[in-house]
Design a protein that fits this description.
5 domains; conserved putative lor/sdh protein from methanococcus maripaludis s2 fold; 9-stranded antiparallel beta sheet; alpha+beta
Length: 483
């Protein structure tokens, strides 16, 4: 026995803490949860924290609403996510959520109000409902494309000779070299020019010799002078050069050919100096760069909006933040068979000379598609398949859905062809909440109408949750999203 007593004492010592824990838990449960209804700590709680135990007989009325809901007549059940989907019996949606009951007394309050929603001003502020006016403005049809710069075909000139001779000196030697109008290009020696100059001087001297002769002789002498002058002018001899020849009486051996226009040298005859020239020889090609052409391509459905003379906004990546206004000058007569596009030429001013041939640019056309159109902000429109709906804000916190027919869309606005009048205000935020409330009222009205028809003798129509008949029954109002 002396060997067993220490073992029994060790077992009691191990069980003693467990008994204390179990006893404490039972005491705590009896004091605070009070399963026997003795309220042993109510007095202390009332003195310490102001707690007052309510008799169970007084708690019964608070539970009355939970039981009273069972006494209310359930008209039907609706989908918690889509009020237009209803069911005559309790059901669950695709996500497993229970359909919500719609009671007869709730339905009666909304019968006759249509789909108009009335909301308190504080609720409107909490919902962050914003509105915008229905206004009139011009809507543009934006067309964006890209293109590249090229020389203006209307400002390109060719320098040619109209007489035979030899080039003795060249002043402009490089392709791409800028020249100004009247700047010397090269000098030409031509025996024909020298002979014509001598004839002009001889004719002038002859006129002075026959100053006292009869009128007919003086007239014939003057005709010789005019003939020599005309021949020189037809050879592109300037009036200043002819006047200098007549004043000095000195025959210039070579004639200086000048640039007929300012610009850049596009082409130059190679080995021009010392070359024998003949009439029609193309010595230089000069392009005036004060205006360049921007060649862009537009698609078939965009050509109808572009016409000659309209303006376009042109931007270059080389000059960020700058916009140049160009003018449409020419539309090519044929479409490209490979790309089904049409080339359009836009005249772009280049007074500063910064623009160069071959630069790429972005072009934006903004023709007016709907002048003075009735428009609403694009965020105010609810797209519901084949229908478009806006929520019109009325006075006193009333909101009503309107089905609208839309036209052009541009710059964040939609053109409204029908469904609205000027001066109204439409909701631009939180309209989905208003739409859901309006559709719930519509569903209640439809169900009330169906119930009234069945009570009058017609057979009630039972619809499956989310079925086609259910959507058809509620698809006739303006807020039917299923269409």
């Amino acid at each position: 026995m002396t060997t067993q007593r220490p073992a029994s004492r060790s077992t009691a010592q191990r069980l003693r803490p467990l008994l204390w824990v179990a006893g404490s838990f039972v005491l705590f449960y009896l004091l605070f949860f009070d399963p026997l209804g003795l309220h042993p700590v109510d007095g202390w709680l009332e003195r310490a924290v102001g707690y007052h135990a309510m008799p169970r007989s007084e708690m019964a009325p608070s539970a009355a609403p939970a039981t009273a809901s069972a006494d209310r007549e359930v008209l039907f059940y609706r989908n918690p996510m889509d009020p237009t989907i209803t069911s005559p019996v309790p059901a669950k949606d695709e996500m497993g959520m229970n359909y919500l009951p719609v009671y007869a007394d709730e339905a009666e309050r909304v019968v006759g109000e249509g789909t108009t929603v009335s909301i308190d001003a504080a609720v409107i502020q909490n919902m962050n409902v914003r509105t915008a006016p229905v206004e009139r403005r011009d809507l543009t049809h934006e067309i964006r494309t890209v293109g590249y710069l090229e020389y203006d075909q209307q400002r390109m000139v060719t320098v040619t000779t109209k007489y035979s001779g030899w080039v003795e000196k060249v002043y402009v030697n490089y392709i791409g070299e800028p020249v100004a109008k009247g700047e010397p290009l090269f000098e030409v020696y031509s025996p024909e020019l020298v002979q014509t100059e001598q004839e002009l001087l001889s004719a002038i001297e002859y006129v002075s010799n026959v100053a006292d002769a009869p009128e007919d002789a003086r007239r014939r002498a003057q005709a010789l002078v005019d003939s020599a002058r005309t021949r020189l002018s037809l050879w592109d001899i300037s009036e200043a050069q002819i006047a200098r020849l007549e004043e000095t009486g000195e025959i210039f051996r070579t004639l200086t050919v000048t640039a007929p226009a300012g610009g850049l040298v596009m082409r130059r005859m190679a080995g021009l100096e010392g070359m024998a020239v003949r009439p029609g020889l193309e010595a230089y090609h000069i392009a005036d760069i004060s205006t360049l052409w921007l060649s862009v391509e537009v698609f078939e459905d965009q050509v109808a909006w572009i016409r000659s003379g309209m303006e376009a906004a042109v931007t270059f990546a080389y000059f960020p933040g700058e916009t140049v206004r160009g003018t449409v000058r020419f539309l090519e007569p044929e479409f490209s068979e490979e790309t089904r596009t049409l080339a359009v030429k836009i005249a772009v001013p280049n007074t500063s000379g910064r623009l160069r041939k071959g630069m790429f640019a972005t072009v934006v056309f903004e023709p007016v598609a709907a002048p003075g159109a009735l428009v609403v902000p694009s965020e105010a429109v609810l797209q519901t398949g084949r229908r478009s709906v806006v929520i019109v804000a009325g006075e006193g916190g009333r909101f009503e859905p309107h089905e609208v027919v839309l036209g052009h869309a541009s710059e964040g606005y939609y053109q409204v062809l029908s469904g609205l009048a000027g001066g109204e205000r439409v909701v631009t935020s939180a309209q989905f909440l208003l739409d859901s409330e309006s559709r719930l009222k519509e569903a209640i009205q439809k169900m009330m109408s169906s119930t009234a028809a069945s009570e009058a003798g017609g057979a009630p129509i039972e619809r499956e949750p989310g079925g086609a008949d259910d959507h058809a029954g509620h698809g006739g109002a303006a807020m039917a999203h299923g269409e």
